[in-house]
């Protein structure tokens, strides 16, 4: 069964949000590295790859269900994020927006009685809990560090090898 036209359109729109997430985190990686935060840069590069994987999950689902894949225009992300804390704060706000978009898709899937789509979206509902939690934890730690240079550098070092959320492997492989 194909998704309804309304659900397919909303999924294509959301797929664009996931690809935009990848673009946004790549911009954050570039800003981090140019500001001397190599660890955050590596973290953001990994996050960008993970988001690309999320976009591809929608791509594959739409194809599998016989719907048309429409690659919509991806907006240009900012190039300057101010401070490390401000950057992660923007990442957190972005993830909250992505969660709302997933919730809207889920509501549409239930309205259509499209349980295959709802089951597909279950993974994303869980993933967004992890994504928001991960970003929030980093924002909290950056808030504690404040303007303390050595504390910021220590956090940056930890970000270089920090385990991303559980979706990394699955999302990246998708
Ligand atoms: Fe794929 Fe971070 O939402």
Structure characteristics:
174 residues, disordered C terminus, binds MU-OXO-diiron, mainly alpha, Ferritin, 6 helices
Write up what this structure looks like.
The protein has one domain: Ferritin (Up-down Bundle), CATH 1.20.1260. The protein is built from six helices and no strands. Mean pLDDT is 94; it is low at 168-174. The chain starts with a helix and ends with a helix. The chain has helices at 5-34, 38-64, 84-111, 115-145, 149-161, 167-173. It is mostly helical and 174 residues long. MU-OXO-diiron binds next to helix 1, helix 2 and helix 3. MU-OXO-diiron is lined by residues 18, 21, 51, 54, 95, 98, 131.
CATH superfamily: Ferritin, core subunit, four-helix bundle
Strand content: under 5%
Secondary structural class: mainly alpha
The residue ranges in which pLDDT falls below 50 over 5 or more consecutive positions are 168-174
The CATH topology corresponds to Ferritin
What is the mean pLDDT? Answer: 94
* Sequence of secondary-structure elements: HHHHHH
Number of strands: 0
End-to-end separation in angstroms reads: 22 Å
Major sheet details:
none
| Ligands (ions, cofactors included) | MU-OXO-diiron
Query: What coarse outline follows from CA principal-axis ratios?
Result: elongated
Give the C-level CATH assignment: Mainly Alpha
